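A common beginner's mistake is to predict each chain separately and then try to dock the pieces by hand. The better habit, illustrated here, is to supply every component at once so that their relative placement is modeled jointly.
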Amino acid sequence: AASAAAPDDGGPVVHLFQWRWESVAQECEDFLGPNGYAAVQVSPPQEHVVLEGEGYPWWQDYQPVSYRLDQTRRGTAADFQDMVDRCRGAGVRIYVDAVVNHMTGTGSVGSGPGSAGTEYEKYAYPDLFGDGASGYSEQDFNTAECGRDIEDWNDPWEVRTCELLGLSDLATGDAYVRETLTAYLSSLVEMGVAGFRIDAAKHMPPEDLQAVVGGLPGTVPGWDEPPYVFQEVIADSAIGEDEYTGIGDVTEFDYQRGIGHAFADGDLQAAKGVGDGALESDSAVAFVVNHDTQRNEPTLTHRTDRDRYDLAQAFLLAHGYGTPKVMSSYDYTANDQGPPMSGDGTTAATDCSQEAWVCEHRALNAMPTFANATAGEAVSWLDDGSQRGRAALERGSAGFAAFNATGEEWAAGFSTSLPDGTYCDVASGTFADGACDGATVQVEGGSVDVAVPAEGAVALHVGAMVEGDG
Ligand code: LAG
Ligand code: CA
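With all components supplied together, the output reads:
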């Protein structure tokens, strides 16, 4: 397969939410590398709280106990390193979800051994790296400055200094805390981790975050590029995305809300304009849902309307806005429910043939190769705008795609600047070593006729020509 676009050129990402490390490694080799993914966002790898009394919820991960990678519910440090190496071998980067704003909250127990056995209580984490050499104590938190929950969300100082959900808030203005966080993230880069999602970035002053990531190694071993940093910022009138774009990319929640509503409403004419007025494309991470919005703001998810949601994620990979990030979920009925697991809360290996793991990314086939082949090409619209539920686009002369959010097949012809030839439809199949396992479509004399399935897409690009490319 052709190599994926670089992180800063919008190389497509998939979030394998809660997957075990060995399952991620296997998926890199079996599916992600061959289908063009640039990277996987993995769940937080550091030691976390273990909340048996709450049924081992997924959000244990967002309460760090130490920065040890051994042992989380997803595997050991050796498993983690093996995943980084095997994904590298498949051409796929690992992006780590970096929980650096806070440590634990009160939760169901409030203290205890963490997943790797480290003793802790709120504001006291005595052994951060398993060598007894460094810890956090009360002075490393904003207890004297605030020490209570955020109440006034219109006050940026409070949002950044007080506690999010009662989680012990790190004094990221202090040199020791900054150096410790840089040491944690740098140790991951040294292992070959190629990027970070900064959790709760809005809850840290930009200058603090800049100081933390400014100390990272300039080049990722195994990749000839700097670590890619993107920040989770749910912007509002008090805190803007532009405060963070100088540090790295930013998650664009306006795009997320816009794309979700447009596709849920079946209004693909509205989908064309999603992203207008939002962050510049090259500063944005774009997505249909993340692990929080699929629970808290379920406009369009795998649970509300699977076909339409798949179509929205396919559109995301063709649209050309931002760095596209696909969500891949496990099934759940309650928001707090953890992933498939054994009796002690250890996560089960992923099996995409079982309903417990939704594996939405598999339904997108080789759409990430479309994002790669069309990187940097502006989008133009080919349909006449007369059909609310249907739209067709072109990305320069590198890619053509049509989307049909209706219950009837859409048979249509378009003039296209794609070169003449036979193309693999990467929305319906994969393309590897010149072989297409989906439908093929002819471009002849500068035009193309497509039969777009009900609630489906057709996507053609110059990196997936079956013949006629000479
Ligand atoms: C995030 N981004 O800024 C994550 O995307 C989001 O998933 C995290 O919340 C949050 N910030 C903190 O990293 C998740 C759950 C929360 C959970 C929290 C800590 O959505 O529900 O809070 O992780 O585990 C839980 C309880 C709270 C309690 C808190 C502290 O739900 O009621 O106050 O733990 O004990
Ligand atoms: Ca903070």
